[in-house]
Amino acid sequence: MNIGLLNTASIAAIVLTATAGDVLIAAAMRSLGDLDLIRKSRGLPATIFAVVSSPLLFAGIFCMALSFFSLLFALNHGSLSLIAPASASLTFVTNSIAAKLFLKENVDRRRWTAAILVCIGVALMAN
Amino acid sequence: MAPALPPFLFSAKTVSIHAPKSARTITFPRLLVLCSITLCAPFGDTFLDIGMKRLPAISLSHPSSLIGAVLTPWVAGGIALLLVWFGSQISALSWADLSYLLPVTSFGNVIVALLAWRWRHEQISSLRWIGILLITAGVGFVARGPSYTPPPQPVLESAKESAR
Question: What CA–CA distances, in Å, run from B134 to A71, A122, B109, B110, B128?
Fold first, then answer.
């Protein structure tokens, strides 16, 4: 398989699975509500039980594990200087898009600007 | 058009526990949680890196040697820091938006680069300095805005409120 195509597919797999993981974990926590309030009203054991009994959380952790193994696979074929900055910086942008689409977050101009600045910054820092 | 949220994400049962409007601000304990996320991930990764580099090369034909690696002080410390990071991250996601949290906590990259420059006397190229400036600007931008988007009220609850 063409190395360029393999690198692109690997980076896409890392970014998509990491974004899915972040969104699923965020959705799990939003559906539970503020953990500080739950801890105050029901105590710490009930808070921990509420968190660990969320299926969305485990789906998110599963996606993060897939992302980790995609990263290992990508590093086996491609160079760290390409894979790490590309996947880390693209994840900021895809997370903003997914947060707006699936979590209905208010991703306004301020957050878009921040995501793009951080995306370019991370790419430059990993260079 | 944006797809609708699955109904199990915001059921009437769970919405009642959501924070009141006054609680949706960054208080001092929440700032500590953000600092913990910002610092634990890069330091945890660095600990793992130091620990794994001190070990002899691990072959895939002897995966059991990875278990021994987990028990070494640097790797165990790194795992402990990453566990703190994960706990802080899920706690923060219960009162902050994902699109707020990720840019804000990306400041950890800047801290690690500055520590490497100051303590380990690593060279930072002009491109990396520009990267540090851009991340700092991005964090400054997003940190001045609201941290949380309130979830939509369920139809049943809003109908009850309007009936009162």
Answer: 25, 9, 12, 10, 10
